[in-house]
Design a protein that fits this description.
Elements lengths: L14 H28 L5 H28 L3 H21 L3 H8 L8 H17 L5 H26 L4 E5 L8 H6 L7 E5 L2 H10 L3 H12 L5 H19 L5 H6 L9 H31 L11 H13 L3 H5 L4 H16 L1 E6 L9 E7 L2 E9 L11 E6 L9 E5 L9 H19 L19 H8 L5 H5 L12 H12 L2 H21 L4 H12 L16 H4 L6 H13 L9 H12 L7 H9 L6 H7 L3
Helix pairs in contact: 1-2, 1-3, 2-3, 3-6, 6-10, 8-13, 12-13, 12-20, 15-16, 16-17, 17-23, 20-21, 23-26, 24-25
Bound molecules: zinc ion.
Length: 640
């Protein structure tokens, strides 16, 4: 069967259909897995490859059930559907972990003959046996019961944590005068109420302009305080228990701590390597950050002579002011070139040209009227489908991320993936344009890697500390004058001038070391909370942030309660900088130009299309022709 014959998912056309879709489809997949497992245990095929094929069938069913349910739990406008989807996530996750504790199922593979398997099947068998070991199958009965309970509880707590963040939107009310400095279109969209006060929410479409443009410090403080207490106090107890549950599970499975458990399957290899890597970043950024901080402090005192500390409520505002005054980059002028519709068309066009793809709009029913869907074609053949859900609404995931929707399997299933973002419908900040390219990097990775025999390696199935490298690499296209000229236009229809982009690039280097320190703060929090499990989460995180970056946290706040990455990334937020080290080096492969067709084709084939079928180190080496190194990252940090 040719891949073109594969059909995409079809969604319900009526509201009632969604509740059924969210429940019945995963339930059917769960039943299918149960039948496969029965067959494997009662009457396993003689040949190992046939056992692996059955296992693959079950994993396809699980992936279909899980990705659909996760997406709906974060995106469906109806709270009832989100709740039903969450219950299915819980059920599928429980089944997945129970399978890895099933000794009879394990025996089917532990006893299997590995001789004669090709590379892909051998890799699958090795990964599968590792999954069983990490699942706890080798433990005694009592311990296995405990591991099962802890794993289920982790799922439950993680879902609750995400739900509280999603539902945690906050509002503040400020006088009209408090909006000084904000762009006219923002003011037009935020009229005062009868009491003369304006409502601001913690959604990105309010938060980002306010933290960048509001000259009134009280306004910035009030909104960032509201944002830093998102999902607090709700998530205080949820997080404390989650950290306990993970620590106990790691210990029962024979690991020192949760970081050790997570890193075993990642490029970094061991939990203890995390602080070692972070201290490398610390050394590489400390001096430059101190110099940058002194400039921010001096600039703050020009506004407020008595101010003694630059806080996270000043950081973006001061960076913006200095970029305008010292580098002649006016963010409000910059954003005038980025109307949302232009950026959307541009991201599609640029990634299509770069990767040899075509996006063909399809008019299909989805979960919300905001969603636009496209078939992805390569060499005229449909290889997947994407759905873009790009603006904020109540109850929706409130950051920016790519969600798999359907796993791709060669000749069997068409990959589908979704972007959930929260962009403005009007003019975008350049930061948002960068985010759009970033998330699109995940999206095309997921689709292009969807032509795999084994679903275990399909899509973004690579080591989890490599996943950000392709998306961070694609950010660079949002900084290229030729690329930007191809799709930007201000109200007069003029594209962004190359000299402005050149100044933006120079300005971007300013504040880079402080941004790395901010990321280092998040990475330290993610690692330390999981390893030390401090009794007082607030005091511990505040101390970590205060000692990692010269830009100070706001006292008494609880940003960890809304730190969504603590569930999925666990102790491994270091991933972003780890991937960035690789992304900076991957960029050196594009020395013939960002749109050079041969380089891009090589990149697509070496890095994106293999998915998880080879180790990331090997993929990177295949593209660069040598192992990656730290040098490109160090140069970037030094401003070049
Ligand atoms: Zn990302």
């Amino acid at each position: 069967m040719s891949i073109t014959a594969l059909e995409p998912l079809s969604f319900p056309t009526d509201p009632e259909g969604w509740a059924v879709f969210a429940t019945d489809r995963p339930a059917e997949r769960i039943a299918r897995v149960a039948a496969i497992d029965e067959r494997l245990k009662a009457d396993p095929p003689h040949a190992t490859i046939d056992r692996l094929e059955l296992w693959n069938d079950a994993e396809i069913a699980l992936a279909e059930a899980l990705s659909g349910a996760y997406l709906l739990s974060e995106a469906h406008p109806d709270a009832g559907v989100r709740e039903a989807a969450e219950a299915q996530v819980q059920a599928v996750e429980a089944l997945s972990s129970a399978r890895l504790l099933d000794r009879d199922l394990w025996a089917v593979f532990a006893d299997a003959e590995a001789a004669g398997l090709d590379d892909g099947a051998s890799r699958l068998l090795a990964h599968l046996l590792r999954d069983f070991r990490r699942g706890g199958v080798g433990l005694d009965d009592e311990t296995r019961d405990r591991v099962r309970a802890l794993t289920d509880r982790d799922t439950e707590l993680s879902l609750a944590f995400s739900r509280n963040v999603r539902d945690g939107r906050r509002e503040i009310r400020v006088p009209v005068a408090g909006l000084a400095g904000l762009p006219q279109d923002f003011l037009d969209a935020h009229p005062a109420g009868e009491d003369g006060l304006v409502t601001l929410t913690t959604e990105y479409t309010d938060l980002m302009p306010v933290r960048e443009y509001a000259t009134v410090r009280e306004t910035r403080l009030a909104l960032i305080e509201a944002y830093n207490d998102l999902a607090w106090p709700e998530n205080e107890a949820v997080l404390a228990e989650l950290l306990e549950v993970r620590a106990e599970r790691a210990r029962l499975l024979g690991f020192t701590d949760w970081a050790d458990y997570e890193t075993e399957t990642r490029m970094i290899g061991a939990g203890a390597e995390i602080p070692a890597f972070l201290s490398r970043l610390d050394a590489a950024s400390a001096d430059a950050a101190a110099i940058e901080y002194a400039q921010l402090e001096e600039r703050l005192r020009r506004d407020i002579p008595s101010a003694d500390t630059v806080t996270v409520a000043d950081f973006w505002y001061l960076l913006g002011a200095l970029k305008r005054e010292q580098f002649d980059v006016d963010a409000q002028l910059v954003r005038s070139y980025f109307p949302f519709e232009r950026v959307l068309a541009g991201v599609l066009d640029v990634t299509a040209r770069l990767l040899g793809l075509e996006y063909r709009p399809v008019d299909v029913p989805t979960w919300h009227a905001d969603v636009t869907s496209y078939d992805v074609l390569r060499d005229g053949e449909r290889i997947g489908r994407i759905h873009l859900d790009l603006h904020p609404r109540d109850g929706k995931f409130n950051h920016a991320a790519c969600f798999p929707l359907a796993p791709g399997v060669s000749g069997r299933a068409l990959p589908e993936a979704v972007l959930l973002c929260n962009f403005s419908r009007g003019l975008l900040e350049h930061d948002e344009v960068v985010t759009f390219f970033h998330e699109f990097g995940h999206l095309v990775h997921d689709i292009l890697a969807g032509d795999q025999r084994w679903v275990r390696f399909s899509g973004v199935a690579t080591e989890w500390d490599f996943v950000e490298a392709p998306s961070q690499l694609l950010e660079e296209w949002a900084w290229d004058a030729d690329v930007l000229r191809s799709f930007t236009a201000n109200a007069a229809g003029e594209p962004i001038p190359a000299d402005l982009v050149a100044r933006m690039r120079v300005a971007d280097a300013f504040g880079r070391a402080l941004e790395v320190r901010r990321q280092l703060g998040h990475a330290n929090v993610s690692y330390r909370l999981h390893v030390d499990r401090p009794a007082d989460l607030q005091a511990a995180t505040e101390r970590i942030y205060a000692t990692t970056s010269p830009v100070q946290p706001l006292p008494g706040q609880h940003p960890y309660a809304g730190f969504g990455h603590l569930t999925g990334y666990g102790a491994c937020y270091y991933t972003y900088q780890w991937s960035l080290v690789i992304a900076r080096d991957l960029l050196s492969g594009f020395e013939s130009g960002l749109m050079d067709p041969r380089t891009a084709l090589d990149y697509r084939r070496s890095i994106l299309e293999p998915g998880g079928s080879r180790d990331a180190t090997d993929l990177v080496e295949a593209f660069l022709g040598r192992p990656y190194s730290f040098e490109a990252y160090r140069d970037w940090l030094a401003g070049s």
